[in-house]
Structures are given as structure tokens and as C-alpha cells.
Specification:
The chain has helices at about 40-55, 65-75, 80-85, 90-95, 100-115, 120-145, 145-150, 175-180, 185-190, 220-225, 245. By secondary structure, it is mainly α.
Length: about 250
Amino acid sequence: MALPLLSYSPKSQNQRVSDFETGSDEQPRIFTTENVLSSGDIEGLIWAAYRQIYSEHQMLKSNRQVALESQLKCGQITVRDFIRGLATSDPFLRRNYQTNSNYRFVEMCVQRILGRDVYSNREKIAWSIVVVNKGPQGFIDDLLNSEEYLNTFGYDKVPYQQRRVLPQRNVGDTPFNLKTPRYGEYHRSQLGFPQMIWQTSVRRFVPQEQQAKAGDPSQYLNMARQMPVPAAPPSRVPLANLNIATTVPYRRR
């Protein structure tokens, strides 16, 4: 008998806050079959699903699921079924499940399918138990059949990162592809990343509008600093010791 899902408490995240925003350029574009009017719209929806599930570094021609695309275009399956087919396909499982731990695989699938970050390590453990008991395909089925997914995306909407950018904030949430890069922490350490690079000189970036123009006196500062310094400074003679009559040349007629 399969173990029930371990209970975990959700934490406060952007997508759990009530939305009172108006539409703007900062809002993510939502792809759904409810407003498909042409073949170009369905193609854009398909590629949006690929970008969401496979991420950018896995957007290869060999990863395309032509049969699933044809079924979606003909209306034989819903967008939810198309997402299920992409997430359970051999390229996705081979590049994400077989090369990562269960915890990392759970984190990636929650981000790409539910459109949010995991709440805590307890949620990772809870879904990892599902992966062990039902396998990766059963785990993905449970995500797509969950009440959270159905209430957020339904059957006809492509998942997306929810409320990544909030109004009146200079910096939004980090995109998922930067939070979970291609290689995990263990593999990055094996490859020697991150690397510490020490520099002997400090390089500063100067914007183009602040760079010195031709004829600017600041351009001669380095040249003046490079001029050789005299070995012995010239001696100073008091004016009282000068004999003006003998030093000034006298011109005779």
C-alpha cells in the first residue's frame, strides 16, 4: 500500500497573496487554448510549454514530441495532458531525473509544473517519498492531479512562474532557471565551480557619457605621473646672497 503524502505547512510566498494588480508589461504572458485564434497562436503555446518544462538549455530539436504536438493541435488532448507528456518523456527524465537526486528533481518539478518554489525541506521530503513509491511518472501525475494545479492552471493553461515581479519593487524573484542551474551543487564542485579568480589590478567600469573627451585635462594626469623625478632637487639660494651687479650681463657700447 502506498504511503500517504506527508503533511507540510505552506509558507508565505508571492503567489499566495491576493492579487489586486492591473495588467501591465511586467505581468507574465499567459498561454491558453481559450484564446487561440490561428495556427501561430497554437505554435506559440507549444513553445511556451517547452520553455517551461524543458528550460532553455534543453531546447533541442531532438527533444521535440511531435506526436503530442499533433494531438494537441487536433484537440485530442488538453494542455494539461501535453504538459504531462513533456514531463514524463524520455528526454526530460533522462536529463533531469537520472542525473539528479530525488530532492533536486522534486524542486525542479514543483517549480516548472506548479509555478512556485518549494515551501520547505519537509515538502521536498514529502514528494520524495512519492517518487520512491510511485516513480517519477506517478509523482508527476500527482502534481498534475493536485488541487493546487487544477485551481491555478486548470486543463487549458500552460504553467508559468507566478507573480515573479511585484509592483513597487526594484528586484523581483529570481527566475527558476537561475535558482536551479543545469548542474547541481555536487556536480559543480566536481567540475571545479565556483572558481576564485584573483586580480592584481582593480578594473573600474566608466559609462560612456562619463569618459573623458579629447582635450580633457584628466587625460594628461597619467602622463604627468609617469615623468621622471629629478635625482637631486635644485638648491634654493636666498635673495640676499645674490649680487645683481655681477650676475646681470652688462652690455658695453
